[in-house]
Amino acid sequence: MNPNTLKRIVVVLGVALLLWGLSELMGGGRDESKSVFVLPAVLPGDMDTVTIVKSSDTIVLVRDGDSWTVNGFKASNLVMKRLFNGLADSSEAELISTSPLVHKRMEVDSSGVSVRLVGGGNELASLIFGKRGRQFNTSYVRITGQDFVYQYVGTLTGIVRQGVDEWRDKTIVMVEPDSVGRIIARRGERSYDLAKRGDEWRVGRVSADTAAVRRLLAQYDSLQANGFATELQMDSLDFDRPDRSIIILGLQGDTLTQLVFDSTSSAFWVRDPAGGTVFKILSWKADQLIPKDSTLHQKAGN
User: Fold this and answer.
1) For the segment 67-121, what is each residue's pLDDT rounded down to a tens digit?
2) Contact 152/92 with Cβ under 8 angstroms?
3) Among residues 61, 155, 170, 256, which one has the fewest Cβ atoms lying within 10 Å of its Cβ?
4) Measured CA distances, 95 to 113, 133, 135, 220 (Å)
5) Do the beta carbons of residue 95 and residue 142 sit within 8 Å?
6) Contact at 8 Å (CB) between 275 and 234?
């Protein structure tokens, strides 16, 4: 065998060994029983605590009867339903690697998002979501304590990365429009009284535009916030002298809800006058919630 042929053989063998080594590192030697990953079969009723630990914050979801709290605040039923649906997703995840050497690069180590499901004091599942994949709704995932790394496809990729405010219930009030009999509103220095008289609405002594009143009542049917005030923001707000206020009364004169509004350059802040959660709403929304009384007047010819 001439020297050139021998060199070629050596090169080919070297490349083959290199490829074999990479195969072993990234996914070789697979255990076929673990070549696919399916989310643990955990039902909503099985869980009472979900802990999500990220580098930026920690989310603790706790069952409270038929509802949930997030870090002590009321959690959104809609967002919790998204979480449960994500956990119920039966999509399989592809095995990417069996080696712990890739955990850091794929961020399925301590730098990832740890998700732990607990029920009755027992751990039901523990996962680490790592770096996002190239495709939509994909990320690398690993079962805590195992070396296997999978590429998961599903909505949990985004859900587990949400901040506390995204988990919280943003409902400010829910008032059934047909239950309202009177609204007492103040906007700046000007106040007005919108009341139902039989089948007619009146703003003071002026007939009200039925369509405008209907639009106003619809705002409070399920009023949602854009966010929440931070502790620093709350320190600068003055609800003792609010910019705007509203009292909504029922058909029998009972109080359905009360809200006070304070404003900043970027938004309005809303809460119950007795205290509680301070919600953020956009300025244009505040104008819809407490419109000028003139916009409620019946138009000429109606």
Assistant:
1) 999 999 999 999 999 999 999 886 778 899 999 999 999 999 999 999 999 999 9
2) no
3) 155
4) 19, 13, 16, 49
5) no
6) no
